[in-house]
Amino acid sequence: TNSVFLERTKTLHTNHPKRLTSMNNLAATLEDLGKHEEAEELYRKCLEGRTDLLGREHPHTLISMHNLASLLVKRDQHD
After folding, report:
1. How does pLDDT run across 17-50, given as a tens digit for each residue?
2. List of residues 6+ apart from 73 with CB closer than 8 A
3. How far apart (Å, rounded) are the C-alpha atoms in residues 33 and 58?
4. In the chain, N or C terminus with fewer CB closer than 10 Å?
5. Contact partners, residue 7, CB within 8 Å, separation at least 6
6. What angle do CA 57, 49, 39 make, to 5 degrees?
7. Dihedral of CA 17/45/28/22: which sign?
8. Buried b (16+ CB within 10 A) or exposed e, 55-72
9. What is the C-alpha radius of gyration for the chain, rounded to an integer number of angstroms?
């Protein structure tokens, strides 16, 4: 899964919108696989990148906030 992300994003700038979308999608996949620590790390990186690039109020940034918050709630309920 990580190799697909790396291949897709190797030519893109760190905060390129497509890279951030791929990062978010990989985090969601990792979350679905139960790899919550890895997913959290990527969700946090994606949120940081989107906040820097788009601002805190942009819909994509808000989606990143929601995804991270949902994972943290899920982890709290299951850990």
Report:
1. 888 998 999 999 999 999 999 999 999 999 999 9
2. none
3. 28
4. C
5. none
6. 105
7. positive
8. eeeeebbeebeebbeebe
9. 12
The answer to whether 26 and 2 are in contact (CB under 8 A) is: yes
Q: List, in order, residues 6 or more apart from 62 with CB less than 8 Å away.
A: none
Range with the poorest average pLDDT among 9-13, 24-28, 52-56, 67-71: 9-13
One-letter amino acid of 5 = F
Q: Encode pLDDT of 52-62 as tens digits.
A: 999 999 999 99
**Total length of the chain:** 79
The pLDDT assigned to 54 comes to 95
Q: Chain-centre distance of CA 17, in angstroms? A: 12
